[in-house]
Amino acid sequence: MIKEWYIQLLILILVWLILTLLKKKFFRKQLKNFKRLDVMSLFLVVAIHFLSQDVMGLSIIPFLICGLSAYGLIMTILYALMEGQILYKKFLIKFWRVADILFLGTYCVLLIFKIVSFFN
């Protein structure tokens, strides 16, 4: 049931709406730096796994993890060379934002492929 693309999309929209509602109603002052996409990334990874298996016949999660690992290694080396030190907070925030964008972009591309193949 969760493997169907429209159910995954509905779950992601519901999670987004619930997080928005929680942030606005209950945690307005406590969570100023709270980004909904940071929490959504966990759900996107699961959705990418099922959607990529359905579209391509294999999961692309290992390839995404390998690419993010290479990006983190390169970013660590560049921070060490350019700044002489690695600022963990700055590194983790930038790394997580790139991962968010990568996961969201991958999900959107896979969803477009699935919708196009659904109507053909």
Question: Can you give a write-up of this model?
Answer:
Keywords: Membrane, Transmembrane, Transmembrane helix. This is DUF3397 domain-containing protein. The chain crosses the membrane at residues 6-22, 34-52, 58-81, 101-119. The longest helix is centred in the C-terminal third of the chain and has 32 residues, at 88-119. This protein has one domain (5-119). The protein has helices at residues 5-25, 36-56, 61-83, 88-119. The chain contains four helices and no strands. The radius of gyration is 17 Å and the shape is flat. Helices cover 81% and strands 0% of the residues. The chain is an all-alpha fold and 120 residues long. α1 (5-25) packs antiparallel against α2 and α3 packs antiparallel against α4.
